[in-house]
Amino acid sequence: MAKLKAQLLDQEGIRRSLTRIAHEIIERNKGTDNLALVGIRRRGAPLAERLAGRIREIEGRAVPVGILDITLYRDDLTTLAHQPLVRSTDVPFPVSGRTVVLVDDVIYTGRTIRAALGALIDLGRPQVIQLAVLIDRGHRELPIRADYVGKNVPTSRKEAVSVRLQEIDGEERVVIMELD
Amino acid sequence: MGLSGKDLIGLRDITAEEIKLILDTAGPMKEIIARKIKKVPTLRGRTVITVFYEASTRTRTSFELAAKYLSADTVGLAAATSSVSKGESLKDTARNIAAMGADVVVLRHPMSGAAELLARSLNVSVINAGDGAHEHPTQALLDMYTVREKKGRLDGLKVAIIGDILHSRVARSDIWGYTIMGSEVRLAGPSTLIPAGIEKLGVRVCRTVEEAIEGADVVNVLRIQMERQQQGLFPGLREYSRMFGISPERLSLAAPGALVMHPGPINRGVEMSSEVADGLQSVICEQVTNGVAVRMALLYLLIGGSEQK
User: Fold this and answer.
1) Which DSSP symbol is given to B85?
2) Which of A55, B101, B177, B295 is the most buried (most CB within 10 A)?
3) How far is Cα B268 from Cα B237, in angstroms, rounded to an integer?
4) Number of domains in chain A
C-alpha cells in the first residue's frame, strides 16, 4: 500500500488556487465571451464546475461547462490489467469556434491530455484550447504544457499525487504518497 | 472490471453484474452515435468478421457499424458467396478466418449450438448473432437497454412476450436476461408454439394474449418466422392475427405508458397492426439505434482491454 508522505494543499489552499486560476482565465481571454470549461473525468469535472462558479462571481456571467470521458481515447488500453469503465461524455454546447479550457486535477505524463485533445476535437473545432490543472507534477512524456497551474510540485516517479475532492472523495486536500 | 469470458454465446450463464456492465457501457456509446463525427479510436487495428449463414439486415449492419464507430476494421462473409457453398465446414471456415488475424468473429447460423462450437475451437472472441432457435443475446441486451432507458429499471417490471416462442431465439435470450435482471416474464402464443416445460425457466405461460398483456409494462411482440414453421403447428395468418395480433384495443389492457417492442422485421397486420407499430408507445426504431450502442459496448468489453484474458 502507498503511504502518505506529505500534504501539498489543504482546503484553503485548493480554494485560493482555483480563485487565482479563475482570475487568470478571465484576464488571459479578456473576459468570458466565447469561453467554455470542459472537465476531464473524474476529478476535472467538479473542478471545472467550481471554476465556472468563481468566474460567475467575478464577472457576473455564466460560462458553459461540459464533462469529457477520455476512456475510449486512451493509448494504454491494451496494457492495463483492469479494463476501465466507460462513462458518459456530456458537452451540451457546440465547441466549434469557442475558447475551451480543459480542466484536470493533475498533469503528469501528458497522455491524458493528449487523449482529451483527441476527444474534444472529435466534438468540433474549437478556436483555442487551453489547459488548467490543480497540480503539475512534472515528468512529461509528450510536448504538452498547462496554461494555468494551481501548484507546481517536483515529484519522483515512485510517488503518486492524490487530489481529494469533497464531491467525489468526501474530503478536501491534496497529498503526495510514496508507492512501494 | 470486465466480462468473465472471451465470448458472448448466450445470456443463460451470464450474471446480473455483467448485464449491468454492458448496459452501463452502452449509454456512453449511444452518445457517440448521436455525434456529427461518429468515430472514436478505441479499436483501431482490430478486426471484426461477420459470418452469416442466414439472411439478416439489421443485426449484421448493426455489428458492422458498431465496429466501425469504434475504428475497428470489418469484413463480412455471407455463406452464399463463400467457400461454404463449396462444402467447407463451419469449423474450417472459421479457422481460416482466425488465421487471417481476426479479433472477433460474429456468427449467425441456423444450427443451435453453432456459436458455442466455434468458440471452443477458436482462441479469438466469438459473439453469437443468433444460432438456430437457441439464443440471440445481443437482441435481448438491446431490448433490456431500451426498457431500462425508458422505465429507469428492469427489476419488478412485467414483460409480456407474445408469439412463436418455440422457434424464437430472441424469446429464449429475453427470458434469460429479463429473469436474471428481476423482471416478471409472461408468455402467450399458439399452444403448439409454446415449448413444454418452459415454466421451469421462471416464466408464466398465459392462456390468452389478453391475460399476458394485462397490466404489462412491456409488450414484446415476436416475428412470425414463416421460414421455420412446420406443418400443423401454425394456425394460419388470418387466424393468428385474430387470436394473437396486437391491436390498439389489446394494447389498452397494458399498464399506462407500456412499451411496444419488436425485434424486426415486422409482418404488419399479422403480429401487430400498423397503428400499434407506428404508435406513440412503440420504441421499435429506438431499439435499432440502441442495438448499435449495445454492440459497441460489447465489442469494447470483449476486445477493448488488455490481451491477457
Assistant:
1) G
2) B295
3) 11
4) 1
- Chain A residues at the B interface, defined by Cβ less than 8 Å, are 69, 72-73, 77-90, 118-119, 122-124
Are A66 and A90 spatial neighbours (Cβ–Cβ below 8 Å)? yes
Concatenated DSSP letters for B261-289?
Answer: E--S---BTTTB-HHHHTSTTB-HHHHHH
Q: Give the C-alpha distances (Å, rounded to integers) separating A179 from A136, A161, A163, B114.
A: 18, 10, 16, 49
Q: How many CB pairs under 8 A join A and B?
A: 59
Give Cα B211 distance to the centre of its chain.
25
**Do the Cβ atoms of B70 and A88 come within 8 Å?**
no
- Whether the CA torsion B59, B62, B63, B64 is positive or negative: it is positive
Q: Predicted ipTM?
A: 0.85
Residue range A47-97, pLDDT digits in tens: 999 999 999 999 999 999 999 999 999 988 878 878 889 999 999 999 999
Grid coordinates belonging to B212? 399476458
Q: Which residues 6+ apart lie within 8 Å of B179 measured at CB?
A: B185, B201, B202, B203
Instruction: Count the alpha carbons within 13 Å of A170 in the hemisphere toward its beta carbon.
Output: 0
- Specify the pTM: 0.92
Instruction: Supply the range of the domain harboring residue A12.
Output: 3-77+84-178
CATH number of the domain where residue A109 is located: 3.40.50.2020
